[in-house]
């Protein structure tokens, strides 16, 4: 610990990084999908892209998307990774019945093979883990209907 008098002992100085320290002061917050609720599982929910912003320490731009909360009278502000082609004022749709368009979020089972996708969930409900860096993407290789899996 830093005391007011004297100097740090050598053992304390050794633990501190010098070059590779994360500068997290001006970060814009965690980037995640919406929580998987009833509206997303059975239909869709509409959100508006309010702004597209740069996040220090991240290559990919962030889209600030505002949804109307389906359960309370309030607005939900979410940070999404902005796919190429997303613009401010655009309506984004999240859910099982959303259309296949740039920026929309829908389950892998609803997309055809060969679709180019980003920010994919590894497990259902983990809110996006795969292909999140700038310029990075995944494509759907095959749907296996027997065991309900999709290769990407």
Output the radius of gyration. Answer: 20 Å
Question: How many β-strand stretches?
Answer: 8
Strand order of the largest sheet: 3-2-1-4
Strand and helix order: HHEEEEEEEE
User: What is the tally of helical segments?
Assistant: 2
Low-confidence segments, given as residue ranges, are: none
As a percent range, the share of helical residues equals under 10%
Mean pLDDT: 91
Structural class: mainly beta
What overall form do the CA principal axes indicate? globular
Question: What would you note in describing this structure?
Answer:
The chain is mainly beta. The chain has helices spanning 10-14, 38-42; strands at 45-53, 62-68, 75-81, 91-94, 116-117, 138-139, 142-144, 149-151. The longest helix has 5 residues, at 10-14.
Task: Walk me through the topology.
Layout: H1 10-14, H2 38-42, E1 45-53, E2 62-68, E3 75-81, E4 91-94, E5 116-117, E6 138-139, E7 142-144, E8 149-151
Short descriptors:
4-stranded antiparallel sheet; 2 helices; 8 strands; 7% helix; two-stranded antiparallel ribbon; globular; 152 residues; mainly beta
Task: Give a quick rundown of the structure.
The chain is mainly beta and 152 residues long. It has helices spanning 10-14, 38-42; strands spanning 45-53, 62-68, 75-81, 91-94, 116-117, 138-139, 142-144, 149-151.
